[in-house]
Design brief:
The protein has ten helices and no strands. The protein is mainly alpha-helical.
Length: 200
């Protein structure tokens, strides 16, 4: 459910803009570290408005992750439209390196930082984020499998293993970006990673 379709949502504030501010809080502090007070203050709303528009904290986090995937990771869908497997992987990894180091967003990646810290939820949030990342990996594997069928990748290439490799590079870059590693260094890692893509 989107924040604009929940029944009884109070009017008077921009639900998507407020959700974008919630994304930043979750991104910087993680799910466990983001208190309801932190969230409502950043979003510019009170708790009743938060509950009416988004549900509870867990619902809000899931909406934040979905919007993050739609907006901040729009480059992934664009990369999948590239004509060759090499171009798909290169565009994905380079756009990812740029996204991880945007000056108008926290460094790193919400899907990594949002659930790094363990908490009182029994690992539910970390599992949700892991499943989200695996869904992206599966989508990439599907695109690479198509490349094999089209003769763009060598026969015998394992699309799942190649997709996993690409995601490991992406996620590793996210951890390093959060630690302060700069864009140029992330792109240097991408340069090396691209050499591993099987050629015909």
């Amino acid at each position: 459910m989107s924040p604009t379709t929940r029944t009884g949502r109070p009017r008077g504030f921009d639900a998507e803009a407020a959700l974008d501010r919630a994304i930043e809080v979750f991104w910087r502090q993680g799910y466990e570290g983001a208190s309801l007070s932190d969230l409502t203050e950043a979003m510019g709303i009170n708790r009743p408005s938060l509950y009416a528009a988004y549900g509870n904290k867990d619902d809000l986090f899931r909406l934040a992750v979905a919007r993050y995937a739609e907006v901040d990771m729009a480059y992934a869908k664009e990369a999948f439209a590239e004509p060759t497997a090499y171009a798909v992987i290169e565009k994905f990894l380079r756009a990812n390196a740029d996204a991880l180091t945007r000056t108008d967003r926290p460094a790193g990646c919400l899907s990594i930082q949002g659930g790094i810290a363990g908490g009182s939820d029994g690992g539910r949030v970390a599992q949700f984020l892991a499943e989200s990342r695996l869904a992206g990996e599966a989508a990439l594997a599907g695109r690479l499998a198509r490349a094999i069928d089209e003769g763009d990748l060598p026969p015998g290439t394992d699309p799942g293993a190649l997709a996993r490799y690409v995601m490991v590079v992406s996620e590793g870059n996210a951890v390093h970006a959060a630690a302060g590693v700069g864009r140029a260094s992330l792109h240097a890692t991408v340069d090396i990673a691209l050499r591993a893509i099987p050629g015909l």
